[in-house]
Amino acid sequence: MKKLFATCTALLFFATTALISPAVAAPLSEEDKKDIARIEEYLKGITTMKASFLQVNAEGGIAEGVFYMSRPGRARFEYFPPAQILVVADGLWLVFHDKELQETTRIPLSSTPISVLLKENPTLSGEVTVTSVEKDAGVLRVNLIDTEEPDEGGITLVFSLFPFELKKWLVTDPQGQTTSVTMSDQEFGGKFEAKLFTFFDEEYDRKN
User: Fold this and answer.
1) Most exposed residue of 88, 114, 167, 195, measured as fewest CB within 10 angstroms of its CB?
2) Buried-state track 59-74, b at ≥16 Cβ within 10 A, e below 16
3) How many Å apart are CA 150 and CA 17, to the nearest integer?
4) Residue 19 burial (CB count, 10 A)
5) Could you give the number of structural domains in the chain?
6) CB-hemisphere CA count at 13 Å for 15?
C-alpha cells in the first residue's frame, strides 16, 4: 500500500519528464500556438467534470476510481478497493489520505501539476512552459515543464481531437518511471456538494 501511495504522489507532483529534455523547449510553430490556445479555451470552458480513471504505473500496477473536478481549485480522486487512498484538492491544499495506515499528507496545491487544470484562468504559460506539441492519429499531446525549475518538473496532457477532450495525462519521475492516468465516461456541468472537496482529519488537525 505504501508503494501505491508513492505512485499517487508521483502522479500529482511535477517530476522530471522523460519525453523531452526538461532544460530545452522546442520553438513553437503557429499551428502549435493555435493548438495551445484551443487547449486553454477547452480548460476554461470546464466548470465541473466527473470521469472514471485508470491509473497505471511503470511496473504495471493498476488502480481505478472516480475523478471529480470543480474549477477553480477543487478535485477528488476516489480510488476503488483494494486501494485505500483518497486524494482531495480543496482549493489550497492537495491532501493525500491513506485509509489503511491512517496517514494524511498535505501539499500546497500550487506545487502540483494538477493545478494546471484547476486554475481559475488556466493558461499554458507563466508558471509552466510548453516544451513541445505533438499531433497525430487524432491525438494532441502537449508537454509542460515548471518554468522556474525546469529540471524538476514535467507533465504531458493528451487530448483526443474528435471530439476534443482531455483523455490522459502522464508524469515521469526522476528515475524515468512514468505513471499514466486515462479518463473515460466524462460528464460535464454537474453539481457537486462542497463536502466532496473537503477533507477533515481529526488527528492531523490536532497535531498541527
Assistant:
1) 195
2) eeeebebebbbbbebb
3) 10
4) 16
5) 1
6) 21
- CATH number of domain containing 169: 2.50.20.10
Q: Which residues constitute the domain of residue 150?
A: 2-200
The answer to whether residue 208 is domain-embedded is: no
Residue 136 inside a domain? The answer is yes
How are beta strands 139-146 and 154-161 bridged, if at all?
A: antiparallel
Asked if residues 169 and 148 have their Cβ atoms less than 8 Å apart, the reply is: no
Is 206 part of a structural domain of the chain?
Answer: no
- The strand pair at 93-98 and 128-136 is best described as unpaired
Instruction: Let me know: does 130 contact 143? Beta carbons within 8 Å.
Output: yes
Q: And the C-alpha cell for 204?
A: 492531523
In a domain, 50, yes or no: yes
What is the DSSP secondary structure assignment for residue 93, as one 8-state letter? Answer: E
For the entire predicted model, the pTM comes to 0.82
User: In this predicted model, what pLDDT tens digit does every residue of 31-62 receive, in sequence order?
Assistant: 999 999 999 999 999 999 999 999 998 888 89
Query: Terminal CA-to-CA distance of the chain, rounded, Å?
Result: 25
The residue type found at 198 is T
Spatial distance between the Cα atoms of 205 and 197, rounded to a whole number of angstroms: 17
